[in-house]
Design goal:
Layout lengths: L1 H14 L7 E3 L6 E6 L8 E5 L12 H14 L7 H5 L2 H14 L7 E5 L2 H12 L4 E6 L4 H9 L3 E5 L4 H10 L4 E7 L11 H10 L3 E5 L14 H5 L6 E6 L9 E5 L1 H10 L1 H4 L6 H15 L1 H27 L6 E2 L6 E7 L1 H13 L2 E2 L2 E2 L9 E6 L6 H20 L7
Parallel strand pairs: 3-13, 5-6, 5-7, 7-8, 8-9
Antiparallel strand pairs: 1-2, 2-3, 4-10, 9-10, 11-12, 12-15, 14-15
Helix pairs in contact: 2-12, 4-12, 5-6, 5-10, 12-13, 13-15
Length: about 425
């Protein structure tokens, strides 16, 4: 009965062009990859130019990080062996947390840091530990799934406000009667690439005696002075800020952290189930992350951010011209100044077809569909890395131009 039920559900997903499938990467993370279809042997892998990684600074395959990871394994072994609260909290974890606390101190005075295995776990920990029955959570409707799930699991009352609609949020805060108020927002929204108005959100938090929880997964390492993130981008400084940053994107490795007032960090240590009841990440990763922070904050990191910014400008200019050439397609480029550059196609099947057309030309650009994005806004989520070149961007635009011409001349052919 269960298998029949699930097969029906899978067929429904197929009919709506919502079925997800994996690929197998055969090489190190980078723009030029060898990939095979899931379940196929390595001998069938082929070369592709990828615009789908969150490795924004191109550090995932950096020789210094590879060596630091190997050094960490030589020093601390392959695994941690237990949770942080048993025996898994190594000197490498402690040193990383101390360094991240210094990084975040200009934005959160006296901040302490707690490290996590993933950003998803960090967000679950934050919202379930802080969102008790005395709290109300106010969440942007386009927040990442981990924030949505954390808010739903919390005991707090939940109010969602339309994306970046601060007028609605203000009215919700005015009507709130609980003693604890938690405003929760992505810093850079992962599917749109736009940046939250954190300065205005913090002003509301201060006005209504609230706390601002910021998921800076896609800003950390990329935005702000020395890549210190979206808070630094805005020049914010407040004890009311609680920041979650991930370390598997611009930092090139894995893991996450929460930076906040010391009492908040202590409470997470006592009450955050997603922290307490899981094995600590391998200490070798924490050791390598310190090398990553040195790269991000140094001259090389600054050069990589400048190059990334130039690629973003070039891509937006060229895609803008392409869209103007084919207005009947209804494509549009999201309002984003970040490395996330979504090309919104609209229809699920059309987005899949354009992605397939690019794939046929050796480009890997994922089609993102509901429920990850709202219905009618299926898109190609183009992500840029400092490891891309201008020639890579030109190749992508040329491939999209070919797909656009085919659609314009033969509107149904690309969907067949």
């Amino acid at each position: 009965m269960l298998i029949d039920h699930l097969n029906r559900r899978l067929r429904e997903r197929d009919a709506q062009s919502l079925r997800r499938r994996r690929r197998i990467a055969e090489a190190a993370c980078g723009p030029h990859q060898r990939v095979a279809a899931d379940g196929r042997p390595a001998s069938e892998a082929r070369e592709v130019l990828a615009f789908c990684s969150n490795d924004y600074l191109g550090l995932a395959s950096h020789p210094a990080l590879i060596e630091a990871l190997a050094e960490g394994a030589r020093l601390y072994g392959a695994g941690s062996g237990a949770s942080h609260l048993i025996s898994g909290h190594s000197r490498a974890h402690a040193a990383l947390e101390d360094e991240l606390a210094k990084w975040m101190a200009p934005s959160i005075p006296g901040a302490e840091v707690l490290s996590f295995s993933t950003g998803y776990m960090a967000n679950l920990a934050l919202l379930t530990a802080l969102g008790d029955a005395d709290a109300t959570i106010f969440a942007d409707k386009l927040n990442h799934a981990s924030l949505v799930d954390g808010a739903l699991l919390a005991k707090a009352e939940l109010h969602r406000y339309a994306h970046r609609n601060l007028q609605v949020l203000e009215r919700q805060l005015q009507a709130c009667t609980t003693p604890i108020r938690l405003i929760v927002s992505d810093a850079v929204f992962s599917m749109d690439g736009d940046v939250a108005e954190l300065d205005k959100l913090l002003a509301l938090a201060e006005r209504f005696d609230a706390w601002l929880i910021v998921d800076d997964a896609h800003g950390f390492g990329v935005l702000g002075a020395q890549g210190r993130g979206t808070l630094a981008h805005y020049g914010l400084c407040s004890e009311r800020l609680i920041v979650m940053g991930t370390l598997g994107k611009a930092a090139g490795l894995a893991g996450a952290f929460v930076a906040a007032h010391p009492v908040i960090i202590d409470w997470l240590l006592q009450a955050a189930r997603a922290y307490i009841y899981t094995t600590a990440a391998p200490p070798a990763i924490a050791h390598a992350l310190r090398a990553s922070l040195a790269l991000i904050g140094g001259e090389e990191g600054e050069a990589r951010r400048r190059h990334l910014k130039s690629l973003i400008a070039a891509l937006r200019a060229q895609l803008g011209a392409l869209i103007a050439e084919h207005p009947r397609l209804g494509w549009r480029l999201a309002e984003s100044s970040t490395a996330i550059q979504p090309l919104i196609v609209g229809d699920n099947a059309a987005a899949l077809a354009v992605a397939a057309a690019l794939d046929a030309q050796g480009l890997w650009v994922p089609a993102i569909r509901p429920p990850t994005v709202p219905v009618g806004t299926a898109r190609l989520r183009i992500t840029l890395s400092a490891a891309h070149t201008e020639a890579d961007v030109q190749r992508l635009v040329q491939a999209l131009r070919c797909a656009a011409r085919e659609l314009s001349c033969h509107p149904t052919s690309i969907l067949l």
